[in-house]
Design goal:
Blueprint: E1 3-9, H1 20-32, E2 37-42, H2 49-52, E3 60-65, H3 72-81, E4 101-106, E5 111-116, H4 125-137, E6 146-152, H5 159-175, E7 180-185, E8 203-208, H6 215-225, E9 239-241, E10 244-248, H7 258-268, H8 274-284
Parallel strand pairs: 1-2, 1-3, 3-5, 6-7, 6-8, 8-10
Antiparallel strand pairs: 4-5, 9-10
Amino acid sequence: MSQALVIVGHGSHLNPGSSEPAFTHADTIRATGAFDEVREAFWKEEPSFREVLRTLESEEVFVVPLFVSEGYFTEQVIPRELRLEEWSVEDWESDGTDADHVTLDATDVGKTIHYCGPVGTHDSMSDVIVQRAKSVTGDDDVGEGFGLAVVGHGTERNENSAKAIYYHADRIRERGRFDEVQAVFMDEDPEVDDVTEFFDAPDIVVVPLFVADGFHTQEDIPEDMGITEDYRTGWEVPETVDGHRIWYAGAVGTEPLVADVILERAGDAGAAVEQAIAEVREETGGVNAVSD
């Protein structure tokens, strides 16, 4: 039976870079030949959630949401727009961070759909955050003498948004690689504005757990942290603030190793992607990420 992968993202009418990670990671995965078809679909751009399944010839489809957390889009919008019959969020048996996959029928197009949990809550995203720290510092051994701040949006509308940030911060802290690890947020405490107050380490790597670079990661967060007074003038990496060197990494979703997490989501749902995962890790420099 032929198999397809669909990467679904939010997209944006205002930020042309919003969909770029989805297309980039799709290209990486497409090059491995692991699937007969690889498609991207968006809520705010074309191709749309509603029509993407109709563009596929494959009878078996793995749908992976390129979203940070479980919530409104992964639990309501995407299943509704894909017309996944008998979908129920209870089938994920998740407490907000451990959604896996559900197999459902899209009878209107005659396809079997393996609907996966979001990329942002997969365990391997912890490895991508570490890889992001390596990338921004240029140091594969980064950790000793460094603090790591994992930044989330934070919102009262979706309590799972913060859960994902704390989840990965806790997992990375347990590894003992960095001197300190802290979850911080834009719209709730502890706030990224005060990031230097939460660390004793002289160097702090700041990694936003966002899918794409946009207004928040390229304008709000840099100004809030004080690494620049005006985002339009840019900033140095690292930039010194309150006696700490801030290594600002930008959105984690732009890290090439995210393609690995997408493949792992599909693999967890039954896709044969072991060789593709090895190829992606080799290509992205994340070969040893899981063992670090």
